[in-house]
Amino acid sequence: MMGALEVTAPAGVPFIDFSREFDAPRDLVFRAWTEPDLLVQWLGPRRLTMIIDEYDVRDGGRWRYVHRDSDGTEYGFHGVFHGTPRPEGMVQTFEFEGAPGHVSLDSVVLEDLGGRTRVRGRSVHQSVEARDAMVQSGMEGGLREGFDRLDEVLGSLRSRVT
Amino acid sequence: MSTDQLSTVFGALADPTRRAILARLADGDASVRDLTAPFRVSQPAISRHLKVLEQAGLISRSRRATIRLSHLEGEPLRDATAWLARYREFWDQSFERLDDLLARIQDTEREGNA
Fold it and tell me: In chain A, which residue's Cα lies nearest the Cα of B14?
């Protein structure tokens, strides 16, 4: 049983939140999130190869990885863990090396559902504008209004329009 | 969909009455009279809301005899969600792989215990 991914970008605050349920116990999901040899097997779309430079899972530990696409183009990311990463909470900075200086603070919480696990994530960007720039896939302009409302509407309409 | 159109869609969605109208239309086409009934607003006010929704492309209106029916259009809502689509896709694809990985590990553990 796979859970449905929920992604929201509420209006007026520079957050992106996601939530997803997994059919596995929490300690296993935590391992998949923190052990480099497991992480490379799932983080990112299949067409990208993930190469981990370092993944030092402890308070102050640095991480860096690269996603490489089929024509050899590389996308590097790095950051630092803040606080000891635990299933109850993993906090880290996240920076795309293609946009240096735009750092988000990412936190992930694994909720124990008894054999199943709900993962909740939040990325906090430096401003609403920075967030919008991050997720804007080729669209320009002020789209800052109405995202939470859109979600509310979509909640009631989902069965109709998707 | 252009940014201007997208802004119009978000503008139309910014009003609670208009969102409620869309939710009502998800259950089927409705006349202005049907749509006015649940709200404490006048029929002309509802008509104005319908005009905004129509301009945003969120609804279309047709005439059956003397009744004007409003119909929900799904396309602009789908376009509006495209904003987050790339981000969502990244995680969706990652998490499908994670589902597979978690299942494989649990299968191996079960075999090991058998």
Answer: A146
